[in-house]
Amino acid sequence: MDRATALAPAPRVATAPLFAGLHGELMALLRGLSRADWERPTTATAWTVRDVAAHMLDVDIRRLSAHRDGHAPPPPAGAIASYRDLVGYLDQLNATWVAAARRIGPPVLVDLLAVTGAQVAAFVTGLDPDGPALYPVSWAGEETSANWLDVGREFTERWHHQQQIREAVGAPGLVEPRWLRPVLEVSMRALPHAYRDVPGADGVAVTIAVGGAAGGTWTLVRDGSAWRLRTGAAAVAVARVRLSEDTAWRLFFGMPMPDPRARLAIEGDEAVGAVVLRAIAIMA
To answer: What is the model's pLDDT at position 284?
Structure first.
């Protein structure tokens, strides 16, 4: 059982300074791939390594064009009236780009990523962390977001796509705490939204403990009509959930896992604890 610790609001996560280093890791990885590596399948549905890299280029271009340069993208063909509509629109954008990018050879793709990745790193470093983001972080249930969380979302996307490539080609993952800890801290912001339909009296708590060097302990506390994310372990909790850092990041990014429920240890209310499995820190 986790020893109770003082609960505090989950702090802002500063990921902007990490972009340049993460980009450097990506460039070193891609430049070392063989021709066969580029065509290896990944866990990203039907995408190969080359497709994932092309998607990362698209992410960079959209970030620079819309957020830095104020370029308005073409409007969607139909109204976006729900979260599912938004996911469908983004899926279509991603699919059309990746299909067109199959005309781009790996050397050109790497050269383009070298330019856009460096520019994104410079751009996010210059943002006011508490300023308003252009788009909210929907998977966290937010209608408006601060730059720091939007930038954190971008960091986690770039990290987990690089992980997909690394796993596909058998390269070591970026799982040391300097990378994985901020990924987990940002991704934990998905938990209150995942629990939004779980009722509870004020003060009811659910504690989530992630094991490993990059792990930590977080607690959801019911406050009025919402759940609030805190750091630390509650003295009394309706459920306590333990999982490894490897399970945590795979869960947040929808990575395939055999029997994910078996990878959780839950004390207390099993049904409430298992809601953790609904938490996802991507648009899906």
So the answer is: 67
